[in-house]
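FAQ

Q: What does a record look like?
A: Structure on top, sequence underneath. For example:
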């Protein structure tokens, strides 16, 4: 089979190589899945760089989220078990963690439903307790993680403010349903949020960016607001001033979604049931902005790493370079 292999750490476009390799053999409690679609996540770039919290042995195949097909023909969602990741024709996954793919979503959309939407659901509902009528601020609202949070916030009855970088991403955020869109390149984020909320600030802030975005969050959060720290796509990890949290009475909530796999896996199943129900009534639908053939995976991972994409980019092994399935 064909699979992208990383033999040394570095930038995805430089270290990912498409090679002919043997089909992996699943271990105890694992299943072999034919990859129908693999969604690209920012952690795929971190894996290539050797900067992710998990460092699989070299060589490995990246790709942490797929829609696959079991040997008996079932369409499923899974997080492949590294080193046999999803940017390949076949991947391996833990059988206990395989979930049914929603019938209302195509392969690329189903592949994109899992990590970003689970993270959003846990962040907004489990950690922040978002309520209908509250104001939700989402950083990087047009990106893969942010777009999921926007849709989930709207589905929960929140008023959503999306922060983006550039006019093109602002247009995407509006299409996603943001009530207010702030272009951080052209506007003062803090001032715009205060104006949109009558000076009150946002009740819940969803931050997958870190760095300057977090500094803005601390100034734009409402009394008894909640800042959910999801990741650091900016590359800068902030050091919060805890005296500021005390003075303004707001909470700083961390979210490492992967911990639920070991700490409370039943919650992941429950969350998937909630997401499937939302997808069935079209309340959420992953924004797949690009579908690429297997041969285009390395370049696509690099684009995601560089922050120039909107929504999700999916790799479809069955897609030809010309675009036909």
């Amino acid at each position: 089979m064909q699979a992208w292999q990383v033999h040394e750490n570095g930038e995805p476009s430089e270290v990912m190589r498409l090679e002919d390799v043997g089909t992996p053999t699943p271990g105890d409690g694992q299943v072999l899945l034919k990859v129908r679609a693999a969604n690209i996540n920012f952690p795929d770039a971190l894996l290539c760089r050797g900067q992710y919290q998990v460092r699989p042995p070299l060589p490995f195949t990246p790709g942490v989220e797929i829609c696959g097909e079991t040997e008996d023909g079932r369409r499923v969602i899974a997080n492949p078990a590294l080193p046999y990741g999803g940017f390949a024709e076949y991947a391996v996954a833990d059988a206990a963690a395989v979930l049914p793919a929603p019938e209302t979503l195509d392969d690329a959309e189903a592949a994109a439903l899992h990590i970003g939407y689970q993270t959003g659901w846990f962040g907004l509902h489990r950690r922040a307790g978002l309520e209908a009528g509250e104001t939700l601020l989402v950083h990087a609202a047009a990106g893969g993680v942010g777009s999921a949070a926007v849709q989930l916030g709207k589905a929960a009855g929140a008023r959503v403010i999306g922060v983006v970088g550039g006019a093109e991403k602002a247009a995407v955020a509006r299409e996603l349903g943001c009530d207010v869109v702030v272009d951080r390149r052209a506007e003062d984020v803090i001032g715009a949020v205060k104006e949109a909320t009558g000076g009150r600030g946002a009740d819940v802030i969803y931050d997958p960016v870190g760095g300057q975005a977090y500094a803005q969050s601390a100034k734009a959060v409402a009394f008894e607001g909640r800042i959910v720290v999801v990741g650091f796509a900016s590359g800068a990890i902030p050091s919060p001033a805890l005296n500021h949290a005390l003075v303004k009475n707001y909470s700083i909530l961390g979210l490492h979604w992967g911990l639920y796999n070991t700490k409370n896996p039943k919650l992941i199943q429950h969350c998937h049931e909630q997401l499937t129900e939302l997808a069935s009534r079209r309340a959420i639908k992953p924004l797949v902005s690009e579908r690429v053939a297997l041969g285009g995976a390395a370049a696509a991972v690099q684009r995601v790493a560089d922050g120039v994409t909107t929504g999700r980019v999916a790799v479809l092994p069955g897609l030809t370079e010309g675009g036909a399935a």
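Q: Is there anything notable about this one?
A: The chain has a mean pLDDT of 95.
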